[in-house]
Amino acid sequence: MIKRVAPWAGIIGTVVFTITFTLLGFLRSDYNPLQMYVSELSIGPQGWIQIVNFMFLGLCLMIFAVGVSKAFTDGKASRAGPVLLMFIAICYFVSGPLVTDPASMFDNQMSVQGMLHGIFGAMVFALSPVCCFVFWRRFRIDSNWKHMQTWTFLVSLIMAIIVVLMKFAQPTTSGLNEWAGLIQRCSLLIFYAWIFTFSLELKKQLDRKMIVLTNF
Description:
There is one protein chain. The mean pLDDT is 89. This protein is globular. The protein has one domain: Rhopdopsin 7-helix transmembrane proteins. By secondary structure, the protein is an all-alpha fold. The two termini are 20 Å apart. The protein has 6 helices and no strands. Helices cover 69% and strands 0% of the residues.
């Protein structure tokens, strides 16, 4: 059952999360999506929507990670890949109720929950390109997944570059701070696009197996 649900969890989770934070960002008059982080949508009276959004994505990615572990039972990435996906999922889920502080706040003014949110968020951004790289190692030698290798490698490379750019786009520093929100969104969207395509391909391969078993 989980193998059939997992691809849909990856598809629905990433799409719903993206649509929700995009709409919230445009509807809040005190929010600038180009400068402010997605996490800052959790602040304020309507912040509960983004909190639930984080937890929903985390839950969907957990289901997806379990499905991937059942699809890759041996070989490269069969252990490390699903574990990384699950850890990223848990970080998303936990970071929801741990509401962030405003990004413009200095480090010595941050709350405990704000610091914890920052830690879990940092792990998501650091591990996402690593996760893609781990699966790339599997895709490039697996005939069933070889067509995903170039896309996966590019995502890993681009995300790694964006993560470095994010270090120079802190709202409390100079440089790219005016584009901090946009840079963060680029990192999120490319990873979600990869999860989306990964989910679609996983669904296709499961459908093929079901057809073969039915005909047999």
